[in-house]
Design goal:
The structure holds 2 protein chains of 2 kinds. Chain A is mainly β. Chain A has no helices and 11 strands. In chain B, a hairpin with a 2-residue loop joins strand 7 and strand 8. Chain B is globular, with a radius of gyration of 13 Å. The chains are: A mainly beta, B mainly beta.
Chain lengths: 112, 112
Amino acid sequence: QKEVEQDPGPLSVPEGAIVSLNCTYSNSAFQYFMWYRQYSRKGPELLMYTYSSGNKEDGRFTAQVDKSSKYISLFIRDSQPSDSATYLCAIPYTGTASKLTFGTGTRLQVTL
Amino acid sequence: DVKVTQSSRYLVKRTGEKVFLECVQDMDHENMFWYRQDPGLGLRLIYFSYDVKMKEKGDIPEGYSVSREKKERFSLILESASTNQTSMYLCASSLQLNTEAFFGQGTRLTVV
């Protein structure tokens, strides 16, 4: 089983829709989660990070963690064509094997 | 503005050639990374370095080597390029191994 799993999409939604992007993870010890956004022909950039409890909101974006299901979500309200990108979840490992582990990314297309 | 700069956006090389991909960061970060990104496989870590002249294998180091002679510069070397190394290569740096990674714009390498 992969450590982080993410549906690759593509996901196509009309402008103004609410978008839900999701990842599942295998290790219940993970405490801290990140979402990166990657525009076409660019490197990924950190969009949001969240700890293991509750939601975190930043403008039209909300990151949510469900530790009991090992499920993390990124919601985008009032989606815009400029949100068209690939969204990657990332989970930091701690301890002697510190690293970031990325999901495969979900490609989102917001159409006019 | 923080910056990770990769020397080339696009490269075309012949099978068997030795290929150098260069990356420079201006954030004084200790840690630097090389990933490759392929459709359906996401970001896969090739090598990383946590200090000058120090390097560690990532998940897919075979066919690659790295060099870090100066803190700000991390080079990826393909000793003898093969067609299965055609990919998008992304360099990143971070303050700690499991904190926010800042990515370059990527190098799309085609091996023919």
